[in-house]
Amino acid sequence: MPDNPLLIAALAHAERGWHVFPLRPDDKRPAFPDHAGDDCTGRDPRCRSAGHHLGWEARATTDADRIRQAWTARPYGIGLACGPSRLVVVDLDRPKDGTSGPTGLDTLAELAAAHAAGIEATYTVTTGRGGTHLYYRHPDGGPELRNTAGTLGPLVDSRAHGGYVVAAGSTVVGRPYRVDLDTDPAPLPGWLVGRLIPAPLPAQRPVVVSLPTDRSGAYVRAAITREADRVTTAPAGERNRCLYVAAVALGQLTAGGSLTAEDAESVLEQAAARAGLGHLETARTIRSGLAAGSKRPRQVAA
Ligand SMILES: [Zn+2]
Prior knowledge:
It is built from ten helices and twelve strands. The protein is of the alpha+beta class and 302 residues long. The strands form three sheets. Strands 3, 4, 5, 6, 7, 11 and 12 form a seven-stranded mixed sheet that branches. A three-stranded antiparallel sheet has the order 1-2-8.
């Protein structure tokens, strides 16, 4: 085998039962598919053979032949799909350069102490920016855990179903992701399970948006569905940005008089909750997106 460290790393991850997929070289974003579900024309060979759009999670694999084929072609980064790999990765960040304050690791240690626990040894990766990824086994039985952002505390996110991490062996803008502790992932500690179980959706009440039954109503309804999907299907790390984009779009319709501000907000809140975004951080994103959109009203012809 030629010396191809990314291929070797990808195969080693798959060997552990972890499902990998190519990221754009030296980048965090998935290399495939190269289009969003909304823009799927069915021309992509994998979408075509599946008969429907296939996202990165469905494309992630442990198949050595497919991995060899991909990583022989280009120096892709390695994305690790947490859900199919039965992993929950706790993502601990550091304050931005030049700012002080506790790191995500400090916050997690404090939380653990509050539960009379410690942070036990588990498979650990140091990220390009100097953050820490702690890999845990997803609990068997019980609800599927999804991503959280800031639910556990500032600078503490988690990735599970619907989420991925940049795996060791990859680089992002030239900065390597390295294994810090190479051991089998520990079971997710009980006190963390309790905190990561998805809260019942705040909007169990489905959002009912009353719209005119004519063509303009259908248009607005399609726009609402599209923007909500944009948020719920966004890859981890892109969710907050996608929420903002969706809020701008709905803010434009609100300013154009097609949708009430209240309805736009509930739709966005519900989509954000389904995407596993924490309430506190999303409220601000939604507000600023709606405000930005309201400056560019968009009218829907009846
Ligand atoms: Zn597609």
